[in-house]
Records
---
Amino acid sequence: MIRVLHISANQFPPLNVDHHTKKIWIELAKDVDEYHVFARSEKNRFESYREGNIILHLIPAIGKRERSFLISGFLLLFYIPRFRITHLLSQSPINGGLAAVIASKLFGLPVMVEIHGDVFFKYFQKKTWTDRILSKLVRYSLRNATLVRSLSNEMSRLLDSEGIKNNVVVIPNRVDLKLFHPPKSDFRAGKSFKIISVGRFVPQKGYNIAIEAVLELSKKYPVELYLIGGGELFEELTLCAGDNSHIHLIEWMEQKELIRFLHASDLYIQPSIPFLGEAMPRTILEAMGMGLPVIATNIAAIPGVVDHGINGLLIEPGSREELANAIEKLLLDEKLRFYLGTNAFNKASSQYEWNNAFRIYRNALYGM
């Protein structure tokens, strides 16, 4: 009997509401008896739901910040014996992960701890007393986990540099090529050169730099920038864009429409900023699956997924000039766009295809 407890500091709705993370649970729940998810409630109360072999346990959120889960996550100690859990999976080494690692020792269970953001590597730099404390907690979780999930070889290298290597396994993010298709075949630009990026409007995405770069380029070229996602920085980014008709901020879009937007675009950009929580944006893989050339910053787990000069271009974070130069380079070179875009699709389909990636994931998780 395999009964998993998946621990997440995120807030989720009931199981009758579809969302991307639920698709992940469905994939990981294949061939197991029960797949329990332990997370925070959007309604700030104790809730429980079941759909097939997936059981969702929600506890009070105790505020909006995930950090509260560092303490409330220890409630999982009551759920493990009650539901006879056999495997533990935590999405964070701190928020829920610390409790999971301690529980694994108490109950003799295997635990996989995941790294989903580069902020943990910021803690290792120990610039503040808070970082020093958090770095100790992160190291304890990662060194005592049965397995540590890394998103790429580059992330594994960073972990190795911190002395965490013997229990690290690379399990990449994935793209559903049945949804994100067909790949781009015509790389000729239309009347305007369309640039797209998808993600929440939050500091780590670096969208202010994207706007500044495109505003500069729009003085010389017919370029259009589409930022899709919405979020806390919407008003700030609107002010940054001003009344320039080349910048389009879109708060929300149906997935089918997003796929059409991607297919009609000429370039995907991801100007992420380091140490603010970025890891390996799934949207990069979705763009690659659509055959788009990618420009991204050289941070976190992005290098190695985006190979500079092979399936995209890597730039240093925080530089409007570097981003503008990279965009201009691709804008002026259709053959390079074709080369990078074709290689991007080939890599996405061979290394990050949805079913293969989840097969690797399940084998590692249930093989502990």
Note: The chain has two domains: 3-174+354-366, 193-351.
---
Amino acid sequence: MEKQTLIFDLDDTLIHCNKYFRATINTFVSTMQQWFSTLTADEIKEKQLQIDLESIEQHGLHSSRFPESLVSTYKFFCEKQKKEIKETEIEEIRKIGVSVFEIEVQPFPYMYEVLSTLQNEGHELYLFTGGDEENQSRKVVQLELETYFGNRVFIFEHKNTEALQTVLQTIRSNPKQTWMIGNSLKTDIKPAVELGIHAIHIPSELEWSYNQIKLDIDPTGELITLNSLTQVPTLIKQYAKEDKAL
């Protein structure tokens, strides 16, 4: 069996993430509706999403972006409805936003078993995740992922093709034996396809609209969609055997 280089995404690939943001946004909406009785939940969510996505271009995936998108949404509707902006309300909203980064994250089912299997079969595991150093490192430490990734953890606030290229230049792996594994078409799969490595797409049940794009690139490597993280070891084992046979 030929050793493969496996680059994993973290959020919503190995661990739950988006469900915490959805719950936090629902709390934000409920709070907003106490102050803006005529606003619908959809109106609030659509404006927050618009502001959040626009701020990614400037701030990337830094955790400070999300609470400020809630505050900006509050200010937008205050101005629109000529309501007084209150510092006490801003502080309450900011606390709601920050709370999502204090939640104890949970791994996907069988995450540890999957990583252990791949590690025991001799494959080299890397982590390529988007966000700020403090928040993403918190998750890695909390879930003891150093056991599988050691110091092979790459954190980027702007997670894109350029970031993945930096990873590949650092690890100097064989592209024909290198895989990007993740849920995001935008930040995982598209960069992998553009850089000519293999890609495994595992769609998330609760996908963030930021991650949803249409791939219009013909892959030079393998591009495979799986239903579950648990299917990865079997696929890699099969491919590694075929690779050795060649």
Note: The longest helix spans residues 41-59.
